[in-house]
Specification:
By secondary structure, the protein is mostly helical. It has a domain at 72-226. Helices cover 65% and strands 4% of the residues. The protein has 6 helices and 2 strands; from the N terminus they run αββααααα. It has helices at residues 33-89, 105-115, 121-144, 148-151, 158-188, 194-226; strands at residues 93-97, 100-103. Strands 1-2 form a two-stranded antiparallel ribbon. A hairpin with a 2-residue loop joins strand 1 (93-97) and strand 2. Helix 2 packs antiparallel against helix 6 (194-226), helix 3 (121-144) runs antiparallel to helix 5 and helix 5 (158-188) packs antiparallel against helix 6. The longest helix has 57 residues, at 33-89. It is rod-shaped, with a radius of gyration of 47 Å. Mean pLDDT is 83; it is low at 237-245.
Length: 245
C-alpha cells in the first residue's frame, strides 16, 4: 500500500488585534487657549475701565474740593465785610427785619413828634445833636473802609463785588442825609417862629430820603451776604405780629 505522504497543511492566519485609537483628552475649560485669550481680553478691558473710572473719580473729587475751597474763600471775605459793617452800625440802630434796619430810632421818634406838633425843636435838640454826630461818624467809617484787599483775588463775581461796593456807598450816603436832617432840627431849635417850622419840615423830608437811600444800601448788603450763603437770623415777632395790642 502506498502510504500517502503528509501533504503541506495550509496555515491558518490569526487576525491581528485592532490598533488602539488614541483619543485626545480635552484640557479643562479654563486652560483652553480661546478661553484664556477671551479672559485676558476681558481682564484688560476691565482694568482699563477701572483706571478710567478711578481717574474720573479722582478728578471729580479734586474739582469738588477746589470748588469747596473757593466757596470758603468767598464766604470768609464777605463775613469779614459783615463784621466791619456790624461794628460800624451797632451804635446807630439795629436790624428790624432782613430787609430793613432801624436807623437812629430815638431821633426818628423825636422827629415824628415834631412833625405831629407834639414836641418842639428845643425838646429834641439834644437828641438831634447826638444823632448827627453818630451818623457822621458811621458814614466816615464806612467810606474809610478798605475793601481792595478784602475783595481782590477772592473769587467773587462782579455781581457780588457790586453788592458790597453799592451797599457801603448807599448806606454812607443815607447816614450823611440823616446827619443833615438832624442838623436842621438843631438849627430849628435856635430859630423862633416860621423859620424853625420850615427847618423842621425840611428835616422830615431829608430824613425820609435818608431812610430810602440807606435801606437801598441795606438790601444790597443783605444780597452780598446771601450770595455766599450767609442768611440773617430770624427776628422774633413783635406784639403786632402776634395780633396783640
Amino acid at each position: 500500500m502506498a502510504i500517502k505522504g503528509k501533504g503541506r497543511t495550509r496555515s491558518k492566519h490569526v487576525a491581528r488585534a485592532p490598533r488602539p485609537v488614541v483619543v485626545p483628552v480635552k484640557p479643562p475649560l479654563l486652560l483652553r487657549r480661546p478661553v484664556q485669550v477671551a479672559g485676558a481680553f476681558l481682564a484688560g478691558a476691565g482694568l482699563v475701565a477701572f483706571v478710567v473710572w478711578f481717574a474720573n473719580g479722582l478728578r471729580a473729587e479734586r474739582a469738588a474740593s477746589a470748588a469747596a475751597e473757593r466757596d470758603r474763600t468767598r464766604e470768609a471775605a464777605v463775613r469779614e465785610y459783615q463784621a466791619r459793617v456790624q461794628a460800624i452800625l451797632a451804635p446807630i440802630g439795629q436790624p428790624a427785619t432782613p430787609v430793613r434796619f432801624d436807623v437812629l430810632p430815638t431821633f426818628s421818634a423825636g422827629l415824628e413828634r415834631l412833625a405831629d406838633g407834639k414836641a418842639t425843636p428845643s425838646e429834641v435838640a439834644d437828641q438831634a445833636e447826638q444823632a448827627a454826630r453818630a451818623a457822621e461818624r458811621a458814614a466816615d467809617q464806612l467810606r474809610a473802609m478798605k475793601l481792595d484787599d478784602l475783595l481782590r483775588d477772592k473769587g467773587l463775581t462782579l455781581a457780588r463785588v457790586n453788592y458790597v461796593l453799592n451797599s457801603r456807598r448807599r448806606m454812607a450816603q443815607g447816614l450823611e442825609l440823616y446827619a443833615r436832617a438832624a442838623r436842621a432840627v438843631v438849627r430849628a431849635a435856635r430859630l423862633p417862629g416860621e423859620g424853625g417850622d420850615e427847618l423842621v419840615a425840611l428835616a422830615s423830608q431829608v430824613a425820609a430820603l435818608a431812610d430810602e437811600v440807606f435801606q437801598d444800601g441795606w438790601q444790597d448788603y443783605q444780597q452780598a451776604l446771601t450770595s455766599v450763603g450767609i442768611f440773617p437770623p430770624i427776628q422774633p415777632p413783635g406784639p403786632g405780629d402776634l395780633g396783640g395790642g
